[in-house]
Amino acid sequence: MAQNTAQNTATARYSEDGFQTALEAHRQGALDNAVAGYRRTVAEMPQHVDAWGNLCVAYLALGRAEEAVAAGRKALALRPDMAELHINVAAALKSLGQLVEARRALEQAIALQPASAPAHINLGNVLRAAGQADAALDAYELAGVLAPGDIAAHSNQGLALKDLGRPEDALIRFRRALAVNPGAAEVHFNLGNTLRETGALDAAVESLNRAVALDPAHLRARTNLGVTLRDLGRIDAAIDAFDGAIALDGEYADAQWNRALALLLAGDFKRGWPAYEWRWQATAMTPRNFEQPLWDGGPPEWRTILLHAEQGLGDCLQFIRYAPLVAAKGAKVVVECPAPLVGLLKGCAGVSQVVARGAPLPQFSLHAPLMSLPGLLDTRGDNIPADIPYLNARESAPVELKAALESAAPEGKKIGVVWAGNPEHENDHNRSCDAGCFAPLAERSDVSLYSLQKDAGPGALEQLPQAVDLAPFLNDFCATAFAVSRLDLIITVDTALAHLAGALGRPVWLLLPHAPEWRWQLERDDSLWYPTMRLFRQSQPGDWDGVFQRLSQALTAL
Fold first, then answer.
1. Is 27 part of any domain?
2. pTM for the predicted model, two decimal places
3. Are residues 425 and 539 in the same domain?
4. Could you tell me which residues come within 8 angstroms of residue 175 by beta carbon, excluding any fewer than 6 positions away?
5. How far apart are CA 323 and CA 315, in angstroms?
6. pLDDT tens for residues 269-295?
7. How many CA atoms lie less than 13 Å away from 307 in the CB half-sphere?
8. pLDDT per residue over 518-546, tens digit each?
9. DSSP per-residue codes, 453-470
10. Residues 279 and 327 reside in one and the same domain
11. Which residue of 18, 292, 385, 536 has the fewest C-beta atoms within 10 A of its own C-beta?
12. Are residues 440 and 496 in the same domain?
């Protein structure tokens, strides 16, 4: 008996020494070594609650959430009264997307320790992940009261306020967090992102630079710095920022993708098109999975190639111009596109068949995403296929549409207008303007205004009482094309209508935000893609007044 007791004591001492070694490895960031040490400890001392608890934390840091949950629950079986263990298990459950169970674990932690700021912060994180930003904000604010010096309480309030569409209030919280800890790189990162959202681009660059200086390995900070510099038109600096992130991790898709957009914006198509293929890894876009191989741009040898549309309607209208080039190489071209475009695209040269997305596909031998064609066909700034029109309007249209087009006074130019794009677009708050911006134009005696705006929204048309509303008669893109072909000029923000007018060869004035999409390049008032298009750019973020002043002057000069 005495010998067994001595052996047990020696084992316990050895296990405790191993635990301390694992703990030191954990402190130094050697997580794999820490995990190995904790596992040896619990193998020898299954009742070692601290080893189980720390094993949970180490697993979570390594991204091994399922194992973290298992280890945490082993610890809880030994000490169900420890709030910290419930918090750690909840964090692991959250990373697995098990938000209901995570919330339940945190509620248990709060029941055990109501004044635990970490418990309330983690509850806020779970609520925010569940889309309950209001409730998350309440949890973070309570944490801030319990622990005024806790930087996460203030910073996470800012994140919740951003979710709620209150960026100015979010800025206050981020700055409050930095007053607690000026060296918090993640808070500088969040501050910079929010400043960019409010249009304070120079200040955003300063904050993001600070985040990178504090944490040079912060890939998201480097990437968002590049995005903000790109928005400012500082393309070389933006590419340097993206390259800095890529040097740290060549597979970091977000940096690769944004670098591609910067290259294309600068007109560097040689490097830009190959890099554009990173869109499949960096965005929510999912590549199509067919048995047939991707076309590599080589001779199709009279085989059938399926060209499938991707992204928005405007993208499809812009890049369908490549269908005749593919056909000229000796392919039979089948196009799959969104249903609203089927009728219009049937008239595109080189296209043998058009199929609505979701409908059964005919037989084909090869396939290609529509927006990969510029790269496959080696497009440069001087060889963009811009022979217009490459789409054509039908001669027939509903009687009601024809009547509406003739309803305005015959004198003056007939101008079609669009002021808003898809509200779901991530940049819609920058690229769309208010209908009232067109009001001075509507009052001119030398103009008859026609609204081509779909889903105008409450009160929008009331700001343009002189305008003829064509939207009720625009049931498909064929009808819209007919209307565009009968108008003298189209003035629109960056929407599919701009591409439609350009593809039809109609005069179109495009109103662009200060940070435009890559396809419009920088510092030019013409378009590489559409010879009949004129670009009107904001000189400062949000400056639609300046755009419309220049537009009015240009209209007078016609």
1. no
2. 0.88
3. yes
4. 191
5. 14
6. 999 999 999 999 998 888 999 999 999
7. 30
8. 999 999 999 999 999 999 999 988 999 99
9. -SS--TTTGGG-TTSEE-
10. no
11. 292
12. yes
